[in-house]
Amino acid sequence: MNSTNRGANRAVILLAGLLLLAVGLAGLAVGALPTVRTGFADQAPGVLGTVTDALKATPLAATGHSWLWIAAAAIAAVFIVLFVVFIVRQGRGHTRELLAQAPTEHGRTVVDSSVAEQLLQDALSSRPELVGSHVSTYAVKGTSVLKVSVSCRRGVSPADAKDLVEEQLLALDALLGTSVPTLIQISGGFRVRTAGATRLA
Prior knowledge:
Alkaline shock response membrane anchor protein AmaP, transmembrane
């Protein structure tokens, strides 16, 4: 849950993975297979000559250098900027504001996300059915959404853990006077996620 589109995340990871896999397999083939190594050695001088001729045929004014280097540097700079932006955007989406009422003549009421997070964390940490829990708040399409992650003890049903979390959420709703959209994530055993989305308005 962050401000980066999930499809974009997966597309970038897939492309980067495929590129690294292709480079790795090519290097492995050159190093391990004699026929590939021989073919690479035979073709390398010709490829190098073609690249050299292309650079000589595209001089930049009187500098004697090819404009292809500038084009390659510009493309590389664009990709670097895009990757930096992508990296910086990761992890965003957290919000410190859980609820906020419209301003009135008496002022504006705001509930800090840390209040709900601490209340739920304290309630869940005392439950023997759970070995761990974590509560955080995200802004999803302009709405604050709680994310409650819990880890069950061995032998505890994920359904029972979900009911336990929802019991605490209902108590929080009663305290706040409104229902807070929540994502419940449950793990247990070998940390296999059995997750479910619930109460998402």
